[in-house]
Amino acid sequence: MRIGPAFLQTFASQVVQSAASIATAILIARGLGPAGQGRYALFAAVVGLVSTLGAAGQFEGHVLTSAGERSKGRVLLARSVVQVVAAMMVVALGQALWRRWLSLEVEGALASLVMLVLVGEMLALLFRGINLGQHSITAYNVATLVQRVVYFMLVAAIAATGGLRIDAVLGAWLVAVAANATVSGIWIWKRSDAVLSWATVREGWRGSMQRGLRALLTIGLTLLLLRADVYMIGPMLGLEAVGQISVAYTFAEYLWYIPSILASILFAAVAASRGPETVAKICRASRTTVALLTPIGVGLAIVGSWVVPLIYGRAYVQAGTLFVLLLPGMLAVSLHLVIDSYFAGSGFPRISYLAAAGAVALKVVLNLILVPRMSLAGAATATSVVYISLLLVKVIAFGRETHVSFASMCRPTLTDVTNNLAVARSWVRRLRYALADAGSRR
Length: 442
Fold this sequence. Notes:
The protein has one domain. It is 87% helix and 0% strand. Helix 1 packs across helix 9.
């Protein structure tokens, strides 16, 4: 797989997705207020965690199973549907337990909406893994783009009528994720001609699940780390505090968009090959991330405290201060995403889940120490300390595994700039030719 063109296509898609996501988040935060935003953030965190656990690491399992091949598309599609049905039965049977554990107060129609969103997110996640594993970057991008745009349009329409409530937001989310799963599923089905039978679906499934368990452990712990404040701050400081820190996180996590694109593409590349060429691509991507995000981070550190309330409203002044405290950690985890793609593509070795477990434990301890003394500022400070520590662990492990220096990972060069510009020009030229060819056919 050619990393440069795949990245640029995904980047172009992510520009639109980012704009839609930011606008959607602003509308929801303004419409629901800090307390309502806190409740929505808790719903989103629970859906993210439970859908990931229900997927059982098979997003990553599908990537590792496909390794660039498209022949198993329908088989993996059928496995995904069977797995989601089984997972939702388990979730439904244990919902009283996990709702209590996650402090999720939801009943009636709202509970049904949450369960349906869970189904949609699980299917969308598993289908995205198939597309990425098959190196079908266009399908991978289009399906997610559809969800982001549909979600924004529906939330904007609801907000325009003055009826922005938590149930309406969840309903819009359900429609959007259903569109994502439908587009992705149809694309995968048409791209494969495999004959389906229970024997073909079952063949190799156990091995895929075993590979996925390491991914599940790592990703599950990572999600706990990323959303630890949402789970812990509510009982300690209340839902309004959750609303403040969730807005700060949401705005800060936009720094991850470009690194997450690179990480996803590199994950698929490493799954197919872990040779010197792939290692060199990871180092180049890491240096590019440093060069791109360092000046952005410095600028946001200067203006972030007033930009956040300017965008989200005066009710979120505290979130602006929290955003600045989160910045060092968010920049660290952005670089971590790129470097960690090597370990993800290698099948999630011990360093993956041990480092994640250590980070979660450190975050919980620091929260218990700092939040009673420093309130939300303590939680944000703890996050930056933990994310920087996690990055250092992965940088050292990657250097030992691949025998590359710290400078090779983190010091941008003029050659990087030249190569990246050349790839960009080549991609724009091909895109222009494709558009011209499409126009001439009309």
